[in-house]
Design a protein that fits this description.
By secondary structure, the chain is an alpha/beta fold. The protein contains 9 helices and 14 strands. α7 links the parallel β9 and β10. The protein binds S-adenosylmethionine (SAM).
Length: about 350
């Protein structure tokens, strides 16, 4: 898992793992379902076609044969994002221009080129072009805004995790969805909220729009059917989720986010320093993202914080499972919690690890 896993759509045969993604065959209903239900994917892209091209005229001619009518209206603005690797055509801006030109040729009307800025409205249709050893793969983004934008997190405190990464950490922690879960450094509440959505089986995409909804072939009935099906799978889980932070402002933000996500009733938020947490007796999971700084040698304050955190866990959470996201082995070492696994990830481009462990009793 990475912080940025794209999921590609429309390969043939078995799902195929790629670096940072999965390629699979899918129906239109699957396209709706994957956008609606996947908790850790960044975006779902639909493969329009693949061909070789070694000159710009060849690229334009072959790209103009793709089924553009399935995703675009004539004259609709597009954003074309290009990557080129070991190919004769390596000038990405020129490739983007030719692909937009090919779309114009297809419709007999130019397709205006726009920048893809997630915060601007309306979003242009994003087209992804990848050249690898002269093979050109052209795909259409089906998601629109990245899938971590669930719609509930309108405010953030310091250093928030992406919702997709938070959901991935909850799953990677091995949490069973029933035992208590605690985040004593909760910030904007992302881990606790994603845990609550997961425990209740709430579809992460149920409150947002997707790019495919603007496609000519969008089947509203089919989408509503998928949505109703996802809603019917929700459960009223009696689980205890505790989230605390010493920053009162962060707790206020976390509460508002949880309310928007529809899970405020499931999470107990408290403004507390980590040394003051009072978890239940039943052993559960601590999944958290304490401050870690980005320096190679962490300062003394952070080392003390991790040492204190380890002491608190031994005293208050014997036999609990732990999952701590951190960029530094030295800091994790200060906790003196036996490690079970270290999972390498990136968070906002920074290499980090998710350290899974188990608290021993005193
Ligand atoms: C990296 S942020 C957590 C971000 C969070 N995962 C999110 O998605 O928003 C670390 C948090 O730890 C809190 N913190 C720092 N020292 C603390 C302490 N001693 N006790 C409790 N919280 C603390 C900070 O206020 C900050 O909100």
């Amino acid at each position: 898992m990475t912080a940025n896993p794209p999921v590609t759509f429309a390969a043939r045969g078995e799902p195929k793992e790629e670096i940072g993604g999965v390629e699979f065959d899918a129906s239109q209903a699957d396209l709706y379902r994957t956008n609606l239900l996947l908790r850790t994917a960044n975006r779902i892209v639909y493969r329009l076609g693949e061909f070789t091209a070694v000159s710009f005229p060849e690229l334009r001619k072959k790209a103009a044969r793709l089924p553009w009518e399935t995703i675009l209206q004539p004259g609709q603005p597009v954003a074309v994002r290009v990557t080129c690797h070991k190919s004769k055509l390596y000038h990405s801006d020129a490739v983007a221009e030719r692909v937009a030109g090919a779309i114009g040729d297809f419709f007999g009307k130019p397709a205006p080129m726009k920048k893809f800025n997630e915060n601007s409205r309306p979003l242009p249709q994003l087209i992804l072009v990848r050249f690898n050893h002269d093979t050109c793969t052209i795909s259409a983004d089906t998601s629109g805004e990245l899938l971590h934008r669930r719609g509930y997190r309108l405010e953030t405190a310091k250093a928030p995790l992406r919702e997709t990464l938070a959901a991935g950490l909850i799953m990677a922690s091995g949490w069973d969805g029933r035992s208590p879960l605690l985040d004593p450094f909760c910030g904007s509440g992302t881990l606790a909220i994603e845990a609550a959505l997961y425990a209740r089986r709430i579809a992460p995409g149920k409150n947002r729009r997707f790019a495919f909804m603007d496609w000519p072939g969008f089947d509203k009935k089919k989408w509503e059917h998928q949505l109703a099906r996802a809603n019917s799978l929700e459960i009223r889980s009696p689980v205890t989720i505790l989230a605390s932070d010493r920053d009162a402002g962060a707790i206020q933000i976390a509460r508002s986010n949880a309310e928007r996500a529809g899970v405020l009733d499931l999470i107990q938020f408290d403004c507390l320093a980590v040394s003051a947490i009072q978890p239940p007796n039943q052993a559960g999971w601590v999944v958290t993202n304490p401050p870690y700084g980005v320096r190679v040698s962490p300062d003394k304050d952070l080392r003390d914080l991790y040492a204190r955190f380890g002491d608190v866990l031994r005293r208050q959470c014997p036999d609990w499972n732990t999952g701590v996201l951190c960029s530094n082995d030295l800091l994790i070492g200060q906790m003196h919690i036996p490690l079970l696994e270290k999972i390498h990830l990136t968070n906002g481009g920074l290499p980090v690890s998710f350290y899974r462990g188990k608290v021993q009793s005193l």
